[in-house]
Amino acid sequence: MIKAAIVGGTGYTGGELLRLAAGHPQLSIEAVTSRQAAGTAVADWFPHLRGHSTLDFVESLPDGGRGLDVVFFATPHGTAMHQVRALLDSGVRVIDLSADFRLRDAQCFAQWYGQPHAAPELLAEAVYGLPEVAASDLATARLVACPGCYPTAVQLALLPLAEAGYLAQAPIIADCKSGVSGAGRSGKIPMLLAEAGENVKAYGVDGHRHSVEIEQEVTRHAGQAADITFTPHLMPMARGIHATVYATLKAPVADVQAVYAQRYTETPFVDVLPAGSHPETRSVRGTNVCRLAVHVTRPGRVTVLSVIDNLVKGASGQAIQAMNLMFGLDEAAGLTLPAALP
């Protein structure tokens, strides 16, 4: 049994980690921290976990985390980077769901996140934990940077073309829509039902933190600079991401559908739909699945539709998928439930 703890367990990603852990055959959550909720029962904070968790929130990890196998950080950016070094030195492996270790350049992190990086010496060691790319690296990783939700949906849409050398540098356009849970669980006026309901709104058009993460990783996959225009939108739904990704090919490809089907043949959580399909966010609600559909709109132009649950494949489910690979478990352990409909 893998002994784990969650730091920052009162948000949506913390709640999803607890929900998924409840159905995992080899994962035991030993502690969940929260300064604001310390002493409160987890099941009082998350009523849907009543009967599945008997833990109370604690202010900090007991004994500094010693004796644990892995710690998940479900905290805002700027927290994990101050605490990870001590855990690693104690032999505890870390999976960070925040952005603290996603970017390779400390100056780039400071520019986009408004603070200097507290552990720049760990950036090179951190494994960017997209399991469809990094399975072998995850097997030996001490520190994993769980990818962002938008970057996950966009990368999985572009990965087959990038790896095969078919992707032109530009134009690449990622037009993405997200449910309001992507903004976190704190009280924010734009997230109120009366504000977000019956409304669609773009944001971050002049520059979004996830844009630099997407470009960093697509550039790595393609072996050339990727010039991506990324525009996120807020949708009146609780969870889900729909990414419509427009790509230009260096030259026409005979069978783009086959390129995608072959690339994802052995990946349990990427489902390439039949040609001409239109995936829906509700088809992945509560699951760790990314569903893709490929459309060749004209010779040399491809539109890829990518849907994920932002809290599962875009965060907590992906973190557990990475953990499974880190500890030599079945990659799909605890993650095989179908979507909840309606």
Descriptive report:
This protein has 342 residues and is an alpha/beta fold. It has two domains: 2-125, 3-Layer(aba) Sandwich (Rossmann fold); 150-309, Dihydrodipicolinate Reductase, domain 2 (2-Layer Sandwich). The chain contains ten helices and 14 strands. The protein has helices spanning 12-22, 42-45, 80-89, 106-113, 131-138, 149-164, 193-196, 209-222, 256-263, 312-326; strands spanning 2-7, 27-33, 57-58, 70-73, 93-96, 127-128, 143-145, 167-178, 201-202, 228-234, 241-249, 270-272, 290-298, 301-308. The strands form two sheets. The chain has a seven-stranded parallel sheet with strand order 3-2-1-4-5-7-6, sandwiched between helices. α1 (12-22) packs across α10. It is globular, with a radius of gyration of 19 Å. The two termini are 34 Å apart. One of its GO terms (molecular function) is N-acetyl-gamma-glutamyl-phosphate reductase activity.
- Structural classification: alpha/beta
**Helix amount:** 25-40%
Instruction: Round the Cα radius of gyration to an integer and report it.
Output: 19 Å
Quaternary assembly: single chain
